[in-house]
Design brief:
Layout lengths: L2 E6 L5 E6 L3 H11 L5 E6 L9 E7 L12 H10 L1 E10 L2
Antiparallel strand pairs: 1-2, 1-4, 3-5, 4-5
């Protein structure tokens, strides 16, 4: 089952994973689930070369553990090496 895995651009840590769906919808759902502020989202097809706020999103067909530490470098590397880079979702403060 394909999952979307979100890696925070600032920390490099996994913030969550969700079922496959449109990337902006998934980012909004992720932020709502962690109590994030309302944001405006935009999709970039490639990785930004700066520290803007947002998520690197990977599509993975590997089984993600039911419980994992998003700071576990082994899991982060597994996602980055075996996943398909789906894009970058920028999450800017809502105006």
């Amino acid at each position: 089952m394909t999952r979307l895995v979100f890696i925070d651009n600032h920390s490099g840590y996994i913030w969550g994973d969700l079922a496959d769906m449109p990337l902006i919808d998934a980012a909004r759902q992720l932020d709502e689930s962690i109590g994030g502020d309302e944001r405006a989202y935009s999709l970039l097809s490639s990785s930004p070369r700066d520290d803007r706020t947002g998520y690197h999103v990977y599509r993975v067909d590997i089984e993600m553990p039911n419980s994992y530490d998003g700071q576990d470098q082994e899991i982060i590397d597994l996602v980055a090496n075996q996943g398909i880079y789906a894009g970058f979702v920028e999450a800017a403060d809502a105006q």
